[in-house]
């Protein structure tokens, strides 16, 4: 019970970040409602406001060099104007379902609010990108302060959300990105619930969907989602927002095609096309490869319109400007910012002569091996491909359209990943790195297809025989499961991770600002070094690091110290080589801060490990 209390008890700063994010989400929702001017699909409003604000911030601060505080004030004024306009008109839009879904997500939201960043990429670029905005109120670029991010050219739409929330609190709030991912999932749950209701009812009623279908959508995107991996979902990574956005885009493309076939009541194809474009703008601004995913969905719509006798191909072509231009706009704006400011640090392809063309079969085999171990997701996608192949022959129903969309998205993305492994990863591509993680980007589309198919089967075989209302059970599961599984979700409390973060902050507090420091983690792979670097680089002059991959011999350690010339050195794990290289005696099972005088070290302070002997062997 005591641990459960710890898991669900956010610090004051974390609670302030949670509250600030909710304020930001309301503001973005209002801006999105102003931009869309539609009363249907209210779950899109948040995404529309987010993408619109991101485009304004990229153009404003990235290209026009306007201070982000001025842009934030303009966005706040727009949100107030939108609120006044909304309350004057008071048109029903189904937003009550969003409140229901947020209530169902409250245990997860509260648990996430209590978490700290703890994963590798959070420390190397996702949070450093946000921290730069908070510290300097402008995007990195020529003539601006140097950034500590490994990848400052990565899209910043998530960093903008952190910045807006941090503007409210007056300090960087690191837990905002993970909470925002849960909010996006809660909004997507409403769309999935509506999809389920329409499939079961077969009448596409317009209006709110109620508690039961909100709960079904929430359960589908969490507990029944084969790509729901806590160490990805509850982080600042862009994978979960991408999963949600790609899922929304898949469903919206399907609805748009249904509307063109006169089968989508209450929704116009033109309105859906504009909404699709706004969501695509958010997707492209979230992660580099997402423009490929958006393109695949557009191509899928093109193919469906060609094969479906009930859809006018010219009608689909007329929608393309609204579908494509918003995403193209944010892509071009970001590329102009990166190129004009000569920013390095993004995903790039290798030279043609370095491509691994002769290893395609080996890479494809590795991808297949990984896929064979993830049968839930790949099994559903294989079914989508089978039904999609049938739909290529003849499209007879909305299910055929959805199958073909998901099949083209999946097969096209697998082909793209193979291409990337061959042309961009070099020798590292032979192991198909992060293949499973990349496939999580299609998790929303996978869930939408599986849920719709299950709803159709239920309407045909289950509903006539089983009429008992079990919505209370689904709602209870949603509310209690986070309590039962909190010990698995709070992976951020990994003792060595907490220790390195706490000690690094103490090191920063104990040294004069801009002191030159290096980190020695000679038995580690770098997972703890990135934490120390993130913390120390904010106030100290971080001169370098030495991990196990650098071969920690006495000669190499001395050369490292000579090349970096540090004033201080933080030693995570003491070894005989470190002691002999720098003429110092270090306690075992302790981390040490030492002061350097040439190649001679003197211990300044030591910290005992909290309950373990070796940080590299502590289970997650």
How would you describe the shape?
globular
Radius of gyration: 26 Å
By secondary-structure content and strand pairing, the structural class works out as mainly alpha
Largest sheet, spatial ordering of strands = 2-1-3-4-5
Largest sheet data: 5 strands, mixed
Quick check: average pLDDT? 94
Low-confidence stretches: none
Distance between the termini: 21 Å
Total of helices: 26
Question: What order do the helices and strands come in, and which of them pair?
Answer:
Blueprint: H1 2-7, H2 12-36, H3 43-63, H4 68-89, H5 96-104, H6 106-113, H7 120-136, H8 157-169, H9 176-201, H10 210-221, H11 230-233, H12 239-260, H13 269-284, H14 290-307, H15 313-340, H16 360-372, H17 375-393, H18 398-423, H19 435-439, H20 443-462, H21 471-484, H22 486-489, H23 495-510, E1 516-521, H24 529-536, E2 541-547, H25 554-564, E3 568-571, H26 576-582, E4 590-597, E5 600-608
Parallel strand pairs: 1-2, 1-3
Antiparallel strand pairs: 3-4, 4-5
Helix pairs in contact: 2-3, 2-4, 2-8, 3-4, 3-9, 3-13, 3-15, 5-9, 5-10, 6-9, 6-21, 7-8, 7-24, 9-10, 9-12, 9-20, 10-21, 12-13, 12-14, 12-18, 12-20, 13-15, 14-15, 14-18, 17-18, 17-20, 18-20, 23-24, 25-26
Describe the structure.
It contains 26 helices and five strands. Strands 2-1-3-4-5 form a five-stranded mixed beta sheet, with helices on both faces. Helix 2 crosses helix 4 and helix 7 packs across helix 8. By secondary structure, it is mostly helical. A hairpin with a 2-residue loop joins strand 4 and strand 5.
Annotation keywords:
mainly alpha, 5-stranded mixed β-sheet, globular, 5 strands, single chain
């Amino acid at each position: 019970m005591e641990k459960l209390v710890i898991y669900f008890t956010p610090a004051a700063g974390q609670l302030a970040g949670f509250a600030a994010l909710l304020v930001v989400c309301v503001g973005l929702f209002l801006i999105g409602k102003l931009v869309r001017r539609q009363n249907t699909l209210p779950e899109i409003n948040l995404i529309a406001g987010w993408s619109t604000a991101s485009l304004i911030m990229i153009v404003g601060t990235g290209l026009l060099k306007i201070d982000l505080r001025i842009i934030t004030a303009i966005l706040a004024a727009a949100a107030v104007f939108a609120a006044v306009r909304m309350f004057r008109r008071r048109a029903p839009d189904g937003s009550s379902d969003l409140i229901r879904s947020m209530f169902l997500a409250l245990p997860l939201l509260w648990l996430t609010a209590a978490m700290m960043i703890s994963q590798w990429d959070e420390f190397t670029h996702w949070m450093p990108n946000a921290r730069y905005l908070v510290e300097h109120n402008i995007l990195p670029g020529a003539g601006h302060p140097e950034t500590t991010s490994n990848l400052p050219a990565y899209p910043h739409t998530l960093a903008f959300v952190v910045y807006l929330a941090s503007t409210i609190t007056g300090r960087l709030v690191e837990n905002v990105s993970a909470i925002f991912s849960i909010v996006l999932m809660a909004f997507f749950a409403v769309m999935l619930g509506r999809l389920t209701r329409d499939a079961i009812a077969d009448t596409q009623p317009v209006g709110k969907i109620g508690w039961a279908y909100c709960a079904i959508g929430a359960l589908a995107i969490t507990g029944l989602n084969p790509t729901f991996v806590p160490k990805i979902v509850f982080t600042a990574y862009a994978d979960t927002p991408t999963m949600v956005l790609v899922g929304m885009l898949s469903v919206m493309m399907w609805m748009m095609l249904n509307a063109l076939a006169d089968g989508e009541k209450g929704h116009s194809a033109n309105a859906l096309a504009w909404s699709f474009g706004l969501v695509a703008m958010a997707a492209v601004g979230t992660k580099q490869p997402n423009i490929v995913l958006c393109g695949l969905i557009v191509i899928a719509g093109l193919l469906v319109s060609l094969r479906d006798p009930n859809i006018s191909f010219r009608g689909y072509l007329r929608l393309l400007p609204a579908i494509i231009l918003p995403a193209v706009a944010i892509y071009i704006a970001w590329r102009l910012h990166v190129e004009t400011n000569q920013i390095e640090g993004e995903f790039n392809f290798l030279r043609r002569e370095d491509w691994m063309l002769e290893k395609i079969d080996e890479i494809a085999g590795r991808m297949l091996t990984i896929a064979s171990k993830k049968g839930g997701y790949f099994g559903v996608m294989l079914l989508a491909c089978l039904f999609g192949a049938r739909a290529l022959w003849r499209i007879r129903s909305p299910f055929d359209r959805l199958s073909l969309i998901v099949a083209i998205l999946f097969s096209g993305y697998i082909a793209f990943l193979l291409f990337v492994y061959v042309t961009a990863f070099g020798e590292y591509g032979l192991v198909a790195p992060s293949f499973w993680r990349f496939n999580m980007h299609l998790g929303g589309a996978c869930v939408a297809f599986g849920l719709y198919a299950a709803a159709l089967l239920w309407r045909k075989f289950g509903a006539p025989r089983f009429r008992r209302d079990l919505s209370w059970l689904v709602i209870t599961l949603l509310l209690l499961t986070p309590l039962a599984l909190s010990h698995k979700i709070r992976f951020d409390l990994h003792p060595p991770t907490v220790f390195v973060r706490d000690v690094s902050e103490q090191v920063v507090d104990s040294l004069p600002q801009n002191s030159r420091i290096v980190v020695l983690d000679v038995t580690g792979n770098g997972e703890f070094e990135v934490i120390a670097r993130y913390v120390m680089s904010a106030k100290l002059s971080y001169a370098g690091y030495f991990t196990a991959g650098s071969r920690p011999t006495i000669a190499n350690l001395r050369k490292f110290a000579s090349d970096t010339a540090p004033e201080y050195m933080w030693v995570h794990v003491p070894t005989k080589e470190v002691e002999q290289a720098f003429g110092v005696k270090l306690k075992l099972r302790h981390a040490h801060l030492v002061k350097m005088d040439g190649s001679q070290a003197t211990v300044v302070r030591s910290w005992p490990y909290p309950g373990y002997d070796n940080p590299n062997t502590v289970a997650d």
